[in-house]
């Protein structure tokens, strides 16, 4: 037996900022009766993530992490789903899983070492959406990037760009838990208020209202930045480098301002890097996969103890994936952007 599986694909390669019109909802049959070793999921939550744009470009060799997507084909995405049919001894109907799925209603997968899908601990009591965001890739990125790459010490001064987003909102809170001074930037006053009033940032500012980012950072960090958790790149990175202390660290997580810029990405000012003896280290979330359970346990405890606030922004229905995705590049999301399918 087969069922129709609706999925979201790009119509063509996407250069510059994505818009809803770049996408279409398509449909293809999927086997309801899996073959031996296979498991069929009904997807419940799907994530939209900035890195996916780089996979949609035609000329993306310089910063591509995995194979480019093919127009018309389904697009990998993290998410969570429920087992609806199983021909694999380890999975039963009703099990809930999270990991690398796709922008589609049903995902057929074959469990194995290469599959980044795992059962969710239902006894944890957390909403399923958390296992896609704060207890999923976003949490792993924020925790690994801040603690393993940033190597914070009590009293250090931390700057977080795109601070109201999925990763940034966690990094700022981790910095406060580590005894650091933290300032974040975001693109609206409401987000700035949230950073200060709800998430406990020491200070925050709206980068869109600052005519000169270097001067703005000088004002917020009169004694310099020790750790720059970089989510934006381009001018934001340049401004941070010009304000960093000697032996400062840049945890290079993302460069979202460059993803929509068809021109060659701006280079950091190497004079600043050399003069200030700055370490810039890029990383991928999956660099920390062997520590995933450890991170999730720590972050989960912090949530239960009320030390971490989780910010989510949920849209409904598979059809909303294109607008939810485009929203990331227009600053229209607050916290982890997810799409709920059921
Ligand atoms: N290395 C890894 O493994 C890894 C994993 C996850 C994410 N990342 C990276 O981390 C960064 C944040 O990802 P996320 O998932 O947490 O997304 P997010 O921050 O939840 O959403 C993106 C946010 O970026 C800001 N933004 C968009 N375009 C911008 C621009 N041109 N200039 C300045 N800010 C802009 C917007 O907020 P405002 O403009 O309102 O501030 C928007 O809400 C991205 O660069 C992403 O690629 C890396």
Fourth CATH level, the homologous superfamily of the largest domain: Medium-chain alcohol dehydrogenases, catalytic domain
| Biggest sheet descriptor | 7 strands, mixed
Q: Helical percent range? A: 25-40%
- Average of per-residue pLDDT values: 94
The small molecules bound here are: NADP nicotinamide-adenine-dinucleotide phosphate
Q: What's the level 1 CATH class of the largest domain?
A: Alpha Beta
Known CATH architecture of the largest domain: Alpha-Beta Complex
Taking all Cα atoms into account, the compactness measure Rg is: 20 Å
What percentage of the residues does DSSP assign to strands (E)? 25-35%
Q: Please provide the ordered H/E string of secondary-structure elements.
A: EEEHEEEEHEHEHEHEHEHHEHEHE
**Would you tell me the structural class of the helices and strands?**
alpha/beta
Shape: globular
């Amino acid at each position: 037996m087969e069922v129709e599986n609706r999925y979201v694909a790009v119509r063509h390669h996407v250069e510059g900022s994505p818009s809803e019109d770049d996408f279409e909802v398509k449909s293809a049959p999927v086997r309801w009766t899996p073959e031996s070793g296979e498991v069929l999921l009904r997807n419940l939550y799907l994530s939209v993530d900035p890195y996916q744009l780089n996979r949609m470009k035609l000329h993306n060799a310089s910063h591509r992490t995995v194979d480019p997507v093919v127009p018309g084909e389904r697009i990998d995405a993290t998410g969570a789903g429920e087992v609806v049919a199983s021909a694999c001894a380890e999975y039963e109907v009703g099990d809930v899983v999270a990991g690398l799925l796709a922008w589609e209603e049903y995902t057929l997968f074959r469990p194995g070492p290469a599959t980044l899908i795992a059962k969710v601990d239902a006894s944890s009591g957390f909403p399923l959406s958390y296992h896609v965001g704060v207890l999923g890739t976003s949490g792993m990125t924020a925790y690994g990037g801040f603690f393993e790459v940033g190597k914070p010490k009590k009293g250090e001064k931390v700057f977080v760009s795109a601070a109201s987003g999925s990763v940034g909102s966690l990094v700022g809170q981790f910095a406060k838990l580590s005894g650091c001074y933290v300032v974040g930037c975001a693109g609206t006053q409401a987000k700035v208020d949230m950073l200060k009033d709800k998430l406990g940032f020491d200070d925050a500012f709206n980068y869109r209202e600052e005519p000169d980012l270097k001067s703005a950072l000088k004002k917020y960090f009169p004694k310099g930045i020790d750790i720059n958790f970089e989510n934006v790149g381009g001018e934001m990175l340049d401004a941070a480098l010009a304000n960093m202390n000697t032996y400062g660290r840049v945890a290079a997580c993302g460069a979202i301002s460059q993803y929509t810029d068809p021109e060659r990405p701006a280079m950091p000012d190497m004079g600043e890097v050399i003069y200030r003896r700055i370490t810039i280290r890029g990383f991928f979330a999956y660099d920390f996969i062997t520590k995933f359970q450890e991170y999730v346990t720590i972050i989960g405890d912090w949530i239960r103890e009320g030390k971490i606030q989780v910010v989510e922004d949920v849209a409904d229905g598979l059809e909303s994936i294109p607008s939810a995705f485009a929203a990331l590049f227009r600053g229209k999301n607050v916290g982890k952007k997810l799409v709920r399918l059921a």
